[in-house]
Amino acid sequence: MHAQQQFDAIVVGAGPAGSSAALVLARAGLRVALIERGEYPGAKNVSGAVFYAPGLLAELLPSFWDEAPFERYITRRVLTFLGKESAFSLDFHTRHFALPPYNGVTVLRPKFDRWLAGKAVEAGALLITSTVVDDLLYEGARVIGVQCRRDNGALYAPVVIAADGANSFLAKKAGLQREFSAEEMSLGVKEVLRLGTRTIEERFHLTGDEGMASEYVGEATGPIKGGAFLYTNRETLSLGIIVQIASLAQQRIRPYELLDRFKQHPAVAPLVRDGLTLEYSAHMIPEGGWQLVPRLARAGLLVAGDAAALVFAAGIFLEGMNFAVASGLAAAETALEAHQKGDFSAATLAGYRKRLEQSFVLQDLQRFRLTPAFVNNERLQNIYPELLCQAAEQVFRSEGRPRKKLGSTILTTLRSKVSLWTLLRDGWQAGRALFF
Amino acid sequence: MQELASEPVATQPIEERLELVRFKVDKRPHIRVHTEACRGCDLTPCVYVCPAGLFEILGGEMHFSYEHCLECGTCYVACERKAIEWDYPRGGWGVSFRAS
Amino acid sequence: MRIAVCLKQAPDCSSVYVDPVSGEVDRERFVQTLNAADACALEAALRLKEQRGGSLFALTLGPDESDEVLRVALAMGADTVERLWHPSAVDWGPLTIAAALAARLHADSSSLPDLIFCGEQSSDWASGTVGPALAAYLGLPQITGVIGLEALPDPSGQLLLRVTRRLERGYRERLLTRPPLLLTVHETLNEPRYPSLPAHLAALQATIAVCDPLSLPQFAPDVEAEEATIIEVRIPRPRPHRLAIPDSQLSPFERIGEIVSGGTSRRQTRLLEGPPEELAHELVRFLKERGFV
Questions:
Q1: Would you kindly state where each structural domain of chain C is located, as residue ranges?
Q2: Which residues of B touch A234 (CB under 8 A)?
Q3: Which residues have CB under 8 Å from B61's CB, separation 6+?
Q4: What is the pLDDT of residue C237?
Q5: Which of C29, C31, C198 shows the shortest C-beta gap to A152?
């Protein structure tokens, strides 16, 4: 074996999980290979993209707030229930999210991921771009390296961190993850529209670097299970839909047609008017939640980020990059501990799961484990948003006739489509999924 | 109340959208479809789920192209017949996002 | 044999997006890579080196980011690489760049390389000037637009090259030549190799030598007398083509004949009938007669 092909740790995938892990490992003085299949980090990466809790990285990178390529920090959160021709929104705006550590920031992944990987490189990691990892290398049951798709493509290290994204081929090949079903995976398709800084600030009531994260359910995705999002970048909008693959296949509607339908909705069209499409992108999202989280480690191998399905898609929460970063950091700490012990067995690496259990990563996923199923509830997707809009319409309607009290107006509307019993049951489930 | 058009209307053909995306197309395809397995498949989920519209049934036969693949993996997850052999393209090839 | 290859980092064609309304190029979306024709030049040089032995020196003129193209060269098999750069070079045109490259090649204590390869043109400005100008500065013969290259066995032991050039209107020119010489290569010449992992790793970690062209004794840029000034950039308007509508009275075969002749001349079409061997002979005779083979 060539000494050049021996590392202390190999990280597969230079996304947020992989680059964070490589950064920590390299800082600790390990010889780290960070392998990326794209020509540059971020070339293959797509998310909304709001990076919540970016403060996770600020602890590692003191100059983070000044240097990181953020678009806008999120001070405005909107949740909209879309009916066919109406929209009911919860709109929250706070200046408290406008100071570091910001609660959430929008990023453009090609820029952000490249920057973050650059930090790992500055710390001493070797970034190997344009290289696909095809498989893991084993010695008995222990992972001892990776096989890259190049001549003489073997690389060795006592510990490999697989942060290879949503398809997680490595986790599957290592027997940690099973094959996905079309019910637990979602497809996100997205467009970036250029509107100009001024238009964005005016149209979305933002000042300076403030930004908005807006999510939609109901008519946003027609009869298909899922939702839509609209995020503000500095001078562009990121807009897209996220839909369950099984539902998409069943309803036989193409995702880009659905995206167009969303853009044409009367409540959305004025927001995107005159936007010039800069790019169209798509990505699979492991939205299965707690049930989809695989075994996270075996001897010599740790799985992080999307590859470990660490995505928090729980109704009003749509988070992934922070889960990726936190898991990458935890994987790196575990790998460091293994190096200190000189023991890369499954037992030592099991410390990774413990770390995640102590952090928000697995706690949130477990606590909200009922939410993905609840969110995909037929009525929540297709009936309640419209009903909510109708109820609001009844409440606000002024016809020159005596009004009923609001409770009776709302109840009458709701019960026109759903029985009181179903309503109560769904209310209970919503409570279980999100509130208590 | 006037109903909205219930049929989705694509304002922009998918080909035009894909024009905005950078592809470095490898000569070797990274997707293989065992089209014999597609015969008799009524659902054809691949046709509907692919965000690049790469799958098409023409004359009862499955046709597909890999060149403008966005590399999401949705097709093989959706295919119930496991007819799609899907891998990443060679390192450095395939799609590169720049503005997302 | 010593071979030098001149490389340039340029935006990959597939990453160039022109705004349909303003006609402006979106530079933010550029993906900078090794210029496609230069990659073929490099590959051709490597193949010759592997066949005949010798050394390969790759050089570029560009800012820090241009190190990437030299890393590609190293990964593919270049022995030594060097980057020329001076901040004032952002304003240099192709002639000045060629003069700097020439000065660098002259600066080696030994004689000039036996062969110099360049890409025919870059994907950005596509002036196709640097190669020919470099040949002129070095006093070397040159062959441009190479689409075929073959080293022939020569009893004298010297290198004999058979070169196919691409000319206008689909014409080809075949030449026999010997070094020293400069070749500019078209991007269809070959398929550049995909480096092995060890080579890729070594290249990623290599230190790239940088040279200030202004420090080279033989180089005196005369930027005042700059060769060209850009007055305007325009998107070419599609040239209208006269479409010959074939006479509907004709048979499908004859109509095809009219269409392929573009209606520009009364070209004759001929339908051959007979056994396959005879037809093949007739076809070969026809192609020879017309100079196609």
A1: 2-225, 252-289
A2: none
A3: B35, B38
A4: 75
A5: C198
User: Residue holding tokens 């036989």?
Assistant: A252
Q: Do B96 and C31 touch (CB under 8 A)?
A: yes
Task: Quick: pLDDT tens for A316-370.
Answer: 889 999 999 999 999 999 999 999 999 999 999 999 999 999 999 999 999 999 8
- The tokens describing C97, both together, are 């760049």
Q: Closest by alpha carbon to A166, among C155, C94, B71?
A: B71
| Topology adopted by domain B28-96 | Alpha-Beta Plaits (3.30.70)
Q: Is the peptide bond before A49 cis (omega within 30 degrees of 0)?
A: yes
ipTM of the predicted structure?
Answer: 0.93
CA proximity to A166, closest of B91, B86, C29:
B86
Among chain A residues, the shortest Cα distance to C206 is held by A126
Chain B residues lying within 8 Å of A186, measured CB to CB: none
CA gap A214, A232 in Å, rounded: 9
Closest by Cβ to C31, choosing from B20, B22, B90: B22
Residue C259 CB neighbour total at 10 angstroms: 13
Give the HSE-up count for residue A257: Cα atoms under 13 Å, Cβ half-sphere: 18
Average pLDDT score over residue span C195-206: 96
Identity of the residue numbered C148: G
Burial of A301 (0-12, 13-18, 19+ CB in 10 A): buried
Inter-chain Cβ pairs, chain A and chain B, closer than 8 A:
155
Chain B neighbors of C25, CB-CB under 8 A: none
CB contact under 8 A, A245 and B49: yes
- Selection from A327, A415, A407, A434 nearest residue A53 by Cα: A327
C197 and A126 within 8 Å at the Cβ level: the answer is no
**β-bridge pairing A317-319 and B84-86:** unpaired
With CB atoms and an 8 Å threshold, state whether A43 touches B8: no
Going by pLDDT thresholds of 50, 70 and 90, the confidence category of residue B12 is: confident
Q: Name the helix (H) or strand (E) containing A277.
A: strand A276-286
Whole-Å CA distances, A331 to A8, C26, C112:
14, 39, 54
Q: What is the 3-state secondary structure (H, E, C) of B18-35?
A: HHCCEEECCCCCCEEECH
Give the pLDDT of residue A436.
83
How far does B67 lie from chain A, in Å, by closest CA?
Answer: 15
pLDDT at C286: 86
In chain A the domains, ranked by start, together with CATH numbers, are 3-69+108-180+289-368 (3.50.50.60), 185-286 (3.30.9.90), 372-435 (no CATH)
Is C212's pLDDT higher than 70?
A: yes
The two structure tokens encoding residue B27: 């000569």
**CATH for the stretch C2-225:** 3.40.50.620
At C276, list the tokens: 């396959």
| CB of C56 closer than 8 Å to CB of C46 | yes
| Domain locations along chain B | 28-96
R_g over Cα of chain A: 23
Q: Is the pLDDT of residue A259 over 60?
A: yes
**pLDDT of res. B6:** 45
Cβ pair B90:C12 closer than 8 A: no
Is there a contact between C3 and C117 (Cβ–Cβ < 8 Å)? Answer: yes
Instruction: Report which DSSP code applies to B52.
Output: T
- Which chains border A (3 or more CB–CB pairs < 8 Å)? B, C
- Show which subunits contact C, needing at least 3 CB pairs below 8 angstroms: A, B
| Distance of alpha carbon A301 from alpha carbon A345, whole angstroms | 9
> What's phi and psi for B87, nearest 5 deg?
-145, 165
Give A417 or B67, the one with higher predicted confidence.
B67
Nearest to A288 by CA among A272, A264, A304, A306: A306
Torsion of CA A95, A311, B21, A214, to 10 degrees: -30
Scanning the structure block, which residue is given the tokens 């709109």? A91
Chain B partners within 8 Å of A169 (Cβ): 87-88
